[in-house]
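Anyone? Bumping this.
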Amino acid sequence: MVVVEDLVKAYGPHVAVDGVSFEVEKGEILGFLGPNGAGKTTTMRVLTCFLPATSGTARIAGFDVYEDSREVRRRLGYLPENVPLYLDMSVDGYLAYMGRLKGMSGADLPGRLEAVTASCGLSERRRDIIGRLSRGFRQRVGLAQALIHDPDVLILDEPTASLDPVQIREVRQHIKELAGKHTVILSTHILPEVELVCDRVLVINKGKIVANDTPSNLTSFASAGQVLTVEARGEHDGMVAAAKRVDGVRSVAAEKLGETIEGARRLRIEAVRDVREDVARELVNGGFGLLRLEVASRSLEDIFVELTTEEPVVRGETG
Amino acid sequence: MRNVRAIALKELKSFYVSALGYVVLGCWLLFTGMVFVLMLGDREPTADMEPIFRNCTILLVIVLPLLTMRLLAGERAGDQGIGTIELLLTSPLSEWELVLGKFFATVFYLLGLVLSSLIYTVTLKILGKPDIGPIIGGYVGFMLFSSYILALGILMSALTNSQVVAAVTTIVASLALWLCNWLPETLGKWAGWLKWTSMLSHHEDFWRGVVTFHDCLWFVSFIFFFLFAAKQVIASSKWR
């Protein structure tokens, strides 16, 4: 449904999105996870035809976002991060206006208004002026706006930002219900959110995709994983075997470390727990000369530490 | 065209939801009413509306930019100069439809001013025998002159994120374009083109009931130019 190939977006010398490629299947919920400034919003703005890409292509339902922009926009529902609304309009007035701009006919509107306001919990507020609604209700109006024309693809930029925990749960529940019928791309910087809502998650950092997997795979690796870089002197097979003896080590890869120190090798050790002390002990006891040992600088875990923010856990919230 | 109608209707409504629409209408009626009363009190009152049309131009220059300042600048109020415009530009409508929708909303608002001022025409008709030609010409001139200010205002509103800046620049630009009518008298013949640039020199004939194709074309051309420029400014956000 959504195909993005080698997308680059630069603002002058600053590259906000740097060669991003991914696909989203029909009916799938894709989570975009990344810290602020990672390029999530920029990618979404390219997909919604708000910004042109510097290079690369993006296609939605087979239409190119640049060449067939109008066809793409017809099929899109978009909730921008700051939830832009006309504060002087009523909920119904606003939704009807957006519906018309999305190409809906006057005859279809009343039915859709009824359905969308009901599904977004706005039935009681349809005549209220948006400016008088609370933050949570405004968010729902924004979501209703994105849904009004029953779009194929929904793009939601941080749909749960600045909501209270109960509202967050409602919005997440609502998004999950949309799956299957709509293809959803949502962005967030909250790790548990993708676990609860998304079928698949893209981790994006500094404009690049650093992971593309199911939430459970990513979280299990991220919560316990460690990558060590070890330099030691000695015979190859013995060294690898020594490292592998340590409980929790998942894989060991060794390479020769140039000619400066005779017999020195660099090991890359992936482990499911903190194995630094055990690896050091095992190597020293095995008679190998330990030269250096450090946690590899950009493991997935580091990225996740940067990505994930604490949030209050809502009691009873489960997948 | 459906999109133009939807936008125009929405903006027209919002003039009357906020106080702005009523304030401008009130100013208009107060000002024209006072001119009308003064006119009737003349020693030799004439049954025409020329004093109203002539005097109200200054009011239009000051008040109409207040209608247009919000139209595009207001859509960009918010984070990084991106507000509701993000919704509009990600909807399946063109920049032309957006700009024309906004423009037609203000033009329809103007029709309200015209209708409300028909009370003077009717009064004149009852009290005397007004020459209807100059009155029709005056109204045509009023619509063209006002549309010119509104189109200019929409362009200024497209150029800035600040509504105040949009209003001030529109007023200043309008006054400058007006005053340059007299500049050739001081600067000499070489500056004659400045008179042509001024909307006043194209406006005056209408009050005498002289509606020429040349003057109409002049106004329509500039209105089109301002709106086209506004459309280009909106579209240019996609090139950056």
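Late reply, but here is one note on the structure posted above: Chain A has two domains: 2-213, 226-298.
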